[in-house]
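Notes from hallway chat w/ T.B., transcribed later so I don't forget. T.B. wanted the structure written out for a chain they're using in a teaching module, and asked if we could keep both sequence and C-alpha cells in one place. Agreed to drop them here.
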Amino acid sequence: MELKDLIYSRHSIRKFKDTDVPKEDILKILDAIRVGPSAENDQNWHFIVVKNKDFMNKLADVINTKLAKVVSRVAEVDEKRAARFEKFTKLFTLFALNAPVLVMIYSYTAPPAAYTEYKMINMPHEELDHLFLQNCGMQSLGAAVENGVLMAMDLGYGSCTMTSQNWAHREIEAFVKEELGFEREGWFLATMLPIGVPDGEAKSPGKKPLDEMVIFVE
C-alpha cells in the first residue's frame, strides 16, 4: 500500500479477529518504532509483548479493581460522571485485552532542551517546570509509535495507540513487576498498542478541516 493510502486510511481499531499475529510480524512492527525519531536520540522506549491470555485476564482484573474504586468515589460527587467514566473505560481501555497481541510500551521523561542550562543559571522553578509542557520525550514516543501503526497496517493488521489506561499506570506497573520482575527506575507505562486483524469495518470520527489549523507566513 502506498504511504499516502496508509495515512489516510488509518483508523483506531478496537475490535479484532481471533487470528494469530506471527512473531516475525510483531518484530517488524517494533523495529519500525525502534528506528523512529527521538529527542537527542534518547530512544526512550522499551517493549513488553503480551500474547498470554492469562496475563491479559489478570491485567483486566487490575484495571477493573482500580476502576471500581474510582467510580465509587466519583459517584459520591456525580453519579452521571461516574457512569460515563465506567463506560469509557470498558469501551476504550478494556477492549485492548481482547486483541491477539498487546504491546505495553514503557518510557521516561526526557529532559527538555535548555533544562540543564536553565538549572546552571538558577532559573526559577516555574520556568523549569514550564519547559516540560512540550514534553519532548512523549513527542518522540508518539512519532515513533506511529511508525509501528503504519507498519502494522502495511502488514494487514490494525492497532490503536492508547493512553486511556494511564490513570491506572501505577497499579499496572506494580502488576508487571510482580508477574515479570520488570522495573526500571524513572520508567513508566506510557502507551499500549493492541495489534490484530480488524474485525468489521473501521470508522473514525470526522477531522477538522485544514484551513482551521494552519497559518502561512510568506
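Follow-up for T.B.: The longest strand covers residues 187-196. Might be a good example for the class.
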